[in-house]
User: What shape does this take?
Amino acid sequence: MQPTLAKSISLPVLLAIGASAVALAAPARAQDAVAAGDASEGGDIVVTARKARERLQDVPISVNALSGDQLRDRGAVDVKDVLRSVPGLSFSGTERGLGNYNIRGISTVASAPTVGIYLDDISLVTIATTFSGAFDPVFFDMERLEVLKGPQGTLYGGSSMGGAIKYVSARPKLDEVGGSAAAGVATTAHGSMSYNAEAVVNLPIVQDVLAVRGGIYFRHDGGYIDNVAGGSFTNSRYSSTEPGFTPQRQNALSTRSASNQNDANTYVGRLSLLWQPDESWSIRPAAFYQHYKLDNPGQFFLGEKKLTSSYRIAQPTTDKAGIYSLDINKELGGVQATSLTAYFDRKLDYVRDYSFFIGGLVPPLLGLTSDNLSASRTKTFSQEFRLASTNSDAPLTWIAGLYYSHQDDNLYQIATTPGATPVIGTEVGYVGDTTTITKQYAAFGEATYKLLDNLDVTAGVRLFQIKQVVDIMGDGPFNGGLTQVIGRRSNEKGINPKFGISYKVTRDNLIYASAAKGFRPGGPNRFQINPVLCAADLNQLGLSKAPDTFDSDNLWSYELGTKNQFGNIMFNGALFYTDWKKIQQQINLTSCGFAFTGNAGAAHVKGAEAEARINLTRAFQVGGTATYSDAKIVEAVPGTTAEDGDQVLAVPKWMLSGYASYGAELIEGWRGQIRGEYQYQSRSRRQFNRTLAILYPSGAAGTTPNRAEFRGAYQVVNAFASISDGETEFRLYINNLFDNRPFLDTDLTAGVDRSTTIRPRTIGLEVRRRF
Assistant: This one.
């Protein structure tokens, strides 16, 4: 039972892996073979997108990377703070842990995400529902963020049909005692103060053999939404005028007053150990724990002059996650063996005010206060073994591996309205308990052959099987009474191939082309929907009942790209085309508050990306990115509200960014830097529905244009300045300089018209000391 627009569903925690095809720069020690080491090499960012150290400009796929220093310079807390400057990456949802990422137009609101999330090659993908989305690690002691474009199914599995977001954490150093400490404070316009503190220590225990690295992090994000007592709200499901349409305005009946109520605290702890008994071994156990507590969501009521709401109860969200892994590497004379064992445990709980939602379904209950508790728990174990060649000078380089994961996901939800028994016969309007067991098996391989010294061809394949079992219990009047489904199963097998060719014109000029298949399994729908209660919406879709299952979808993506360095000018560009069939999409039934996943036909995505950087002088640099995505439904099917020619959901047609940076010596030993950046996204479709069903004062039914059909275009300007002597750094930043407040996730279906926005103008100062 879901009163909000569908958000993300996190499916089988595919604890990553997939591995690298080409060990292009085989290092001398096993430690270096699996780590990115320093963020740069000769001024070039080094990445491990293909599970080997490679200069970013040498990787024959589209990858964007930001080093840890670049993330800190921007004052970035998590990936949402930098996504507008990454070509082709966009996002729906604003709350951490409840969002949905998409890359290059491969966007969907359904149970299985299209973008994989990884921390050190461990998949953080979980089943996505309205009550759970992508897990968002904060940028703490991160060496790098990598965004991989296009299907990454060969190396990263089925949840990466659109691409992958890869967090790379800093590794222990065997020969260096060091660390850092930082503290910061910030103020948000019309909001409260934010502050943060962190500390990291790296300690060799046995020189060149054993080292430990650990750190702690705390952050308080000040709120900027006020909750007012005695306020009012509008409900676009009802019109107060007839004819014509005016959203009905009513007293919210709230006695709760709270300033800056959407503040949040984040606690993080990291610990890793690196043991190299000799140069052929690398053994690294690691643990990461993050606890995020949001006091109230960042939703505000529409029709108000300020960012305010009038909810009746507090609505906390708690997201706790632990990631535990053991990464073992062994050099075997020209072959590197890798074993990655991981366990991901996430618990997401939240309380929401359902008074307006339930009061919209049953008007006599509007005077009563309703609450909803949702509790999601996901536990995933994964194991991967792989072998990879290490001689980059050989004509043939290769990788092969096996992968297994077991994910146990449970969602418990209960909606309660004290005092509702005279109207609906009980105080519990809905209770649901759904458990999903997902097992994945895969064998994969990828090889690159040098036809000439500067001409490589690549081929790869992933064979997989995914089994799911779902048990569903629902009860209460909004469920139509007790329903139970025991052992609803799905079992799918598939093959993901990949082909590529690259030509090195010079060391700094690369041309490449690729074709790859992406696949996402189908499965059982996780709600048992009563066809009588939801008849109005089902009839509009041409259905007599919601489907029990949904089919798999798949795509073929083709890319032609180039990466170039011309003296002081860097230019990368790519053209891409994707043929996507049987798109999985969540279908909302607004008359009863439920949703199911269906297949919304086929889509074609055509687009281009460009990225440039120009060093005008040694001190002055300018650059920018541009992405054009024409993502359209080309074959709509009955049972959804999509139509041929519709934009795919949550995909801006244009994404632009630009920046200018200047750095210079200030006084002996101290260097200063200033940077300004501009980010723009064009409008994007948020819903396929062109109209909303409404009721007039006379009781007659009608429709009105859906004001939430599109999200409007918006722009953001950020700036920062810093001074550093290499050990001590002072950084001043301003995010959202002009205090823009675009409506991001507008919802007109929850009984109260509401939306979210980006954080208002925030000015912060941070001090960092390295030792």
Notes: The longest helix spans residues 355-361. Residues 4-43 have pLDDT under 50 and may be disordered. The chain has one domain: 9-770.
